[in-house]
TrEMBL record:
It comes from Endocarpon pusillum. GO terms for molecular function: dolichyl pyrophosphate Glc1Man9GlcNAc2 alpha-1,3-glucosyltransferase activity. Keywords: Endoplasmic reticulum, Glycosyltransferase, Membrane, Transferase, Transmembrane, Transmembrane helix. It is found in: Endoplasmic reticulum membrane. This is Alpha-1,3-glucosyltransferase. The lineage of its organism: Eukaryota, Fungi, Dikarya, Ascomycota, Pezizomycotina. PANTHER family: DOLICHYL GLYCOSYLTRANSFERASE, DOLICHYL PYROPHOSPHATE GLC1MAN9GLCNAC2 ALPHA-1,3-GLUCOSYLTRANSFERASE-RELATED. One of its GO terms (biological process) is protein N-linked glycosylation. Belongs to the ALG6/ALG8 glucosyltransferase family. It is an enzyme of class 2 (transferase). Its EC number is 2.4.1.-. Dolichyl pyrophosphate Glc1Man9GlcNAc2 alpha-1,3-glucosyltransferase that operates in the biosynthetic pathway of dolichol-linked oligosaccharides, the glycan precursors employed in protein asparagine (N)-glycosylation. The assembly of dolichol-linked oligosaccharides begins on the cytosolic side of the endoplasmic reticulum membrane and finishes in its lumen. The sequential addition of sugars to dolichol pyrophosphate produces dolichol-linked oligosaccharides containing fourteen sugars, including two GlcNAcs, nine mannoses and three glucoses.
Length: 502
């Protein structure tokens, strides 16, 4: 294996060296968010963490992540005591930068360990393909852009998710898979989007007899239920005792935010918003009414209600209903075919449904479907027709997160190298499908990727030359809509392969 690829450890070392060089790079408001959380958890007793509001970036992750920030705050206080003072809003000394960026790299060791376990658990016949898969995840432009430049802690969280998926391969370790996923939910609640797949799989494959759904495995059910309740009690027990669960709910689920994030995530609602913008110009000619109050709300979604100028309004209930409906369709196959590959496919499709139809979806949530899909991309050549446009759309949709000129060559060169290298490797390593490749998907994939080149040139260079500072939202709108078409197309392609018998 190592005669074809560098080892996982070698790639981790090289990737770490690159990340160290990026310490002085652009950092978003998320950098201040996490610095503030270090200060809150270090300076205040636990019962005040979810009430503190000196900064606008209040603590809004579940308790285990708050405990994680508390643990980090002690070495942070040694590195720079001013870093953990609540009143030091926007504090970014070099010691703070080094510590926070270094902490992301150190905690990412868990991702490396999880990928190593995934490689060990892979069948020998697929070991080369699995090795390419783990390297593609480790070197993902998503982690580089979101965690190591923009700034977040996704690496170790996805490490927990991957380890949980690996443990779900065998009946003997399914219990630990469920425990790890419960632990993950108590770190970051966005993974609730994937919970239906876990619930259906663990119930069908672990709690019920594989040959008959009418024969429960009482011992397995009790062990799993007790373990999950135990994890939940450890995380939320103190806040239940202090009668703060209502406050936690208001912080974790701020439904007052609009349908779309400030920069439209590339989903169904981005296309819906784009169509609404287009209809503004033609509505009077075809007899459609225009809501004048919505005309000046270009991004429509940073905070407050979302309003459309021509199309009907979308409610939270509508988003929830669509998400749940498409997830239930996915779970139907998993229930009657509870094997590991179907489980990973169900996780991926649950991620697709929540990303495409969810309320106030962030563009960074694209990793929820991209990471599990990467585990299947080499299982069947038919997957590649859906994976390619998703990979291109995913990483291109993250470009607006890094809008400064200094980061443009870094993000562009890195993403292009990753796409060329791993999409080429995937194509060479993927076994021939039992059924022929889907002609339409392959042609859509090729055409879609080709269009990305002029789009990048226009958004990064030509728009400024043509319009200067005017129409500054156009590049964001074009990027988001283009990427949304890619995600929707890949979702439809994946659904075809998922529900087509082998």
């Amino acid at each position: 294996m190592t005669d074809i690829y560098p080892t996982l450890a070698q790639c981790a070392v090289v990737a770490t060296a690159l990340k160290l060089l990026l310490f002085p790079a652009y950092k978003s408001t998320d950098f201040e968010v996490h610095r503030n959380w270090l200060a809150v958890t270090h300076s205040l007793p636990v019962k005040q963490w979810y009430y503190e509001a000196t900064s606008e970036w209040t603590l809004d992750y579940p308790p285990f992540f708050a405990y994680f920030e508390w643990l980090l705050s002690w070495p942070a206080a040694l590195a720079d005591p001013a870093m953990v003072k609540i009143e030091n809003l926007g504090y970014d000394s070099w010691a703070t930068v080094y510590f926070q960026r270094g902490s992301v790299i150190v905690t990412e060791i868990l991702l490396v360990f999880a990928l190593h376990q995934y490689l060990k658990s892979s069948p020998l016949s697929h070991r080369h393909a699995s090795h390419a898969t783990v390297l593609s995840i480790l070197l993902s432009p998503g982690f580089l852009i979101i965690d190591h430049i923009h700034f977040q802690y996704n690496g170790f969280l996805y490490g927990i998710l991957i380890l949980s998926i690996v443990l779900a391969r065998k009946q003997s370790t399914m219990l630990y898979s469920g425990i790890l996923f419960a632990l993950l939910l108590c770190f970051k609640h966005i993974y609730l989007y994937l919970a239906p797949a876990y619930f259906a799989y663990l119930l069908r494959a672990f709690c019920l007899d594989t040959k008959s759904i009418f024969r429960p495995r009482y011992r397995n059910t009790m062990r799993l239920g007790a373990s999950i309740i135990g994890v939940t009690c450890v995380a939320f027990g103190p806040f239940f005792y202090w009668k703060q669960l209502g406050q936690l709910k208001s912080r974790l689920f701020p439904f007052s935010r609009g349908l779309c994030h400030a920069y439209w995530a590339p989903n169904i609602w981005a296309i819906y918003s784009f169509v609404d913008r287009v209809l503004i110009g033609v509505a009077p000619r075809i007899g459609l009414a225009v809501n004048d109050d919505a005309l000046h709300s270009v991004t429509r979604g940073l905070v407050g209600d979302t309003h459309f100028a021509v199309l009907p309004e979308i409610t939270k209930e509508y988003c929830f209903g669509l998400t749940l409906a498409f997830q239930l369709i996915t779970l139907f196959k998993l229930w009657f075919q509870p094997d590991w590959e179907t489980f990973v496919g169900a996780i991926t499709l649950c991620g697709y449904a929540s990303f495409l139809f969810g309320w106030h979806v962030h563009e960074k949530a694209i990793l929820l479907l991209l990471i599990p899909f990467s585990m299947l991309a080499l299982k069947d050549r038919r997957h590649l027709g859906a994976f390619r446009p998703l990979a291109v759309a995913s990483y291109l949709s993250l470009f607006p997160l890094l809008y400064t000129a200094a980061e443009f060559p870094i993000k562009t060169a890195y993403c292009i190298c990753w796409l060329i290298l791993f999409l080429y490797v995937f194509d060479r390593l993927a076994p021939a499908a039992v059924r022929p490749r889907v002609f339409l998907l392959d042609r859509f994939s090729f055409l879609y990727i080709t269009i990305s080149i002029p789009l990048i040139v226009y958004c990064s260079l030509l728009h400024g030359l043509l319009f200067g500072d005017s129409y500054e939202f156009l590049p964001l709108m074009f990027t988001s809509t283009y990427c949304a078409l890619g995600v929707v197309g890949s979702w439809l392609g994946f659904m075809v392969v998922y529900f087509t018998p082998k």
